[in-house]
Design brief:
Oligomer: heterodimer
Distance between the termini of chain B: 77 Å
Strand content of chain A: 15-25%
CATH class of one domain in chain B: Mainly Alpha
Number of strands of chain A: 7
Radius of gyration of chain B: 25 Å
Number of helices of chain B: 5
Largest sheet of chain B: none
CATH topology of one domain in chain B: Helicase, Ruva Protein, domain 3
Helix content of chain A: 40-55%
Largest sheet of chain A: 5 strands, mixed
CATH architecture of the largest domain in chain A: 3-Layer(aba) Sandwich
Largest interface: A-B, 17 and 15 residues
Structural class of chain A: alpha/beta
CATH superfamily of one domain in chain B: Cytochrome C biogenesis protein
Order of helices and strands of chain B: HHHHH
CATH superfamily of the largest domain in chain A: Glutaredoxin
Number of domains of chain A: 2
Shape of chain A: elongated
Shape of chain B: elongated
Chain lengths: 182, 133
């Protein structure tokens, strides 16, 4: 065998090795439990669900028209929501965006107690007692936060707690894009 | 005393097995379809369980939806489509072949054939050449 051939062999082995290392690092930086939303760039599902605080008010998908909205899925049984909530309380004081809560699969008294004790940062709170609207949104845990454009289409879904770092890296660039017309 | 103990054990065991679904169906056929669907659909929260094994909130809701849809006359295809539109291909334990995953389906066969070809090339080249290392 010529030495040329073994160089070629060596290169192949090294390339495959580097490829695997790259793949492992990529896999490490990705949470396998995070599912991509099926609604990206799709219109929000149609719905007609009451408000948590004003039961006579019925919300529909038109609540997202002509506004940039953050739709935060929360529940009183969701432990991570308690640690996320202070962020929204602070967020709502400075942001111009419409912050809507989706109370998911919860009991009314418990949900109200949550807002009483933790504060209410939401403009409106959709009371999805049955969890069916959550399923239409593809929710599989809480908290989840959807970014919805003024055309009532979903732009992004974040699973897990939102804090200022997550907001700055994941949401802000997309919001700027929407503001520029896309 | 021993009898009392056995009795307690007996009733406790019946308590633990009481978590089966209490759905009523119009026919055995419907129930079979229900059992089949909740076994091939995956729980979105607890990823290594199917709906049938999972007691998570989402799974319970999805099972209820499967049940209601079967009762309302939906076909298996329609129910699977409903789930896929919300949770994606992930919801199926056995994803369907599509453009994005065709490599996963065909990959092993491509590799197998590729290696067989390589092997025969190598074999023919070295035929009779015992001293090669």
């Amino acid at each position: 065998m010529s030495s040329k051939f073994s160089y070629w062999k060596m290169t192949v082995v090294v390339v495959i090795f580097i490829g695997f290392i790259g793949l492992f690092f990529w896999a490490l930086s990705h949470d396998p439990r995070e599912l991509p939303s099926q609604l990206i760039n799709q219109p929000v599902p149609e719905f007609s669900v009451v408000d948590l605080l004003e039961p006579e008010v019925i919300h529909t998908q038109s609540m997202f028209n002509e506004k940039i909205t953050l739709l935060n899925v929360w529940a009183s049984w969701c432990a991570a929501c308690y640690s996320e909530h202070p962020y929204w309380n602070q967020f709502t004081q400075t942001s111009q965006l419409q912050l809507v809560g989706l109370n998911y699969n919860d009991k009314k008294e418990k949900a109200l107690r949550f807002l009483e004790s933790q504060g209410n940062p939401y403009k409106k709170v959709i009371f999805d007692q049955s969890g069916r609207l959550g399923i239409d949104f593809g929710v599989y845990g809480a908290p989840e936060t959807f970014l919805i454009g003024p055309d009532a289409r979903v732009r992004y879904r974040h699973v897990g707690v939102v804090n200022s770092k997550v907001f700055a890296t994941k949401f802000k660039p997309l919001i700027n894009k929407i503001k520029q017309g896309f | 005393m021993k009898n009392l103990f056995m009795l307690t054990v007996f009733f406790m065991s019946s308590l633990t097995s009481a978590s089966v679904d209490l759905h009523e169906f119009d026919s055995l056929q419907q129930e079979k379809r229900y059992r089949h669907l909740i076994s091939i659909l995956r729980c979105p929260t607890c990823q290594n369980q199917n709906l049938s094994d999972s007691n998570s909130m989402v799974s319970d809701d999805l099972k209820q939806i499967v049940y209601e849809k079967i009762r309302a006359g939906a076909s298996d295809k329609e129910i699977i489509l409903f789930m896929k539109q919300r949770y994606g291909e992930f919801i199926l334990y056995q994803p369907e072949v599509s453009q994005s995953n065709v490599i996963l389906w065909a990959g092993p066969f491509v590799f197998l054939i590729g290696f067989l070809i390589l092997f025969f090339v190598w074999y023919n080249k070295n035929k009779g050449d015992v001293s090669d290392d």
